[in-house]
Amino acid sequence: MADRGRWTDAKLDPMRDVGDKPADDIAASVLAGSELEHVNDIFRTLVRTNQPVPRELPDDMEQFLNTTIELPRWAKPDRIARAQSFFQIWGVHITTCLFCASLPSAYAAGKGVRVLAYTGRLQKDAKRRVLETGQFLMDVLTPGGLEDTGNGRRTIQHVRLMHAAIRQSIEKERLRNPASWDPHWGTPINQEDLAGTLLSFAYVPAEPLRKLGIEVSRRTQEDYLHLWKVVGEMLGVLPEMRIHDMDDATQLVNAIRERQYEATEEGKELTAALIELVQTLTPGPLDDPFVPTLMRYLIGNDVAAMIDVPTVTPPLVRFVPRWMGRVFGRGERLVDRSERLQRLVEPIGRELLDNAFRMVRGGTRPAFDIPAALATPWAMPKAVPTGVQP
User: Fold this and answer.
1) Which residues are 360's β-sheet partners?
2) pLDDT tens column, 87-141
3) Residue 160, domain extent
4) Are the C-beta atoms of 281 and 324 separated by less than 8 Å?
5) What confidence category does residue 299 fall into, taking pLDDT thresholds of 50, 70 and 90?
6) Are 187 and 241 in contact (CB under 8 A)?
């Protein structure tokens, strides 16, 4: 059994029944009878921290937005800035890890994945949900994104209220149809699942990036974790679920894997939709087998089997192994294959981001924006919004 440190069942079991009371109270009072889209309507008018909250909002919603916008007192701006600079350098690879490691790993968490599947059915567009997650990543990790003039804090508030609205929606459905939600799964988007999802982002420098041949210093790992701890607190993660350091993070990762990883139909369905999306965003004759093979390499065959990540199948099987073998390690030293994979992932990741930017939602609106502060160093000038300066 892997080291779980302080993250015992006795500590985590109660956290499965705890949501986010401040946000849940707002959702119950303000959004009663409304659809999830109403939350999006509110936030389409709210972009930056220094933008006044519209007067037409209910008083309790306005108070919530004004009192949850600041960073925690313990947040270290210099550490946040270093983490964002790291993303500015390696963001193409990190975003690829989001699509090919973080999200698939989250789909293996048998209890937490139920709410992800429920949300996808509610929105009737799993691809949109994935791209919104990508936008969340961009907003909080862009240099300056968590400052007053950045988009990150408003995006965090948006996600937090969306979580609360989802909890309200699932509860309403449960009252109508008790079989729709098993109490064994816990409260939707509970404290354990929320902390685990954030860890799937924060843990990228410690696991997936290393498999791509990118060595990350301990200080950078801790800075990156610090940023996600800040985001977590602003998303409603309770202080008792706050991670101390990378060793503590590793122990919580181990605990969640032992407690939750299992094969579920929901996890398999979401994985299939994710693979289809990534293959759509990286078109090419070799990308179809490369995407699931990369996923298997980053998350491991055991987890990949739980969520039905496919292996390479005919008619490409006779051609693909020769070049994939060089990349994924057949007869190669670890350092050699890591360097090859790093070079290969970069253009594929850039293509993924570029096509995701071009994909439209509702016929006209870009699926997500890539700020100039990222698009320029990533050599993606076509993704820079018109009139936006680095």
Assistant:
1) 366
2) 999 999 999 999 999 999 999 999 989 887 776 554 456 677 777 888 899 999 9
3) 9-265
4) no
5) very high
6) no
What single letter denotes the amino acid at residue 209? L
User: C-alpha dihedral over 26, 32, 36, 42, to 10 degrees?
Assistant: -60
Q: Name the residue type at position 2.
A: A
Q: Is 366 helix (H, G, I), strand (E, B) or coil?
A: strand
Model confidence pLDDT, tens digit, residues 336-357: 455 667 777 888 888 888 888 7
Q: Which of 332, 333, 263, 230 is nearest to 110 (CA)?
A: 263
Residue 188 within a domain: yes
Model-level pTM greater than 0.90?
no
Sequence-ordered list of residues with C-beta below 8 angstroms from that of 64, at least 6 positions apart, any chain:
22, 23, 26
Query: CA 214, CA 244: separation in Å to the nearest integer?
Result: 24
CB 296 within 8 A of CB 104: no
Question: Which pLDDT value is given to residue 39?
Answer: 63
Those residues with Cβ within 8 angstroms of residue 232's Cβ, 6 or more apart along the chain or in another chain: 194, 195, 198, 241, 242
- Could you tell me if residue 273 is inside a domain? no
Residue 384 domain-assigned (yes or no)? no
* Distance between CA atoms of residues 175 and 91, nearest Å: 43
Hunting for tokens 């309790």 — which residue is that? 60
Q: Is 216 left (phi over 0), alpha (psi -120 to 50) or beta?
A: beta
Domain count, the chain: 1
Please check whether residue 371 lies inside any domain of the structure. Answer: no
Sign of torsion over alpha carbons 54, 56, 57, 60: positive
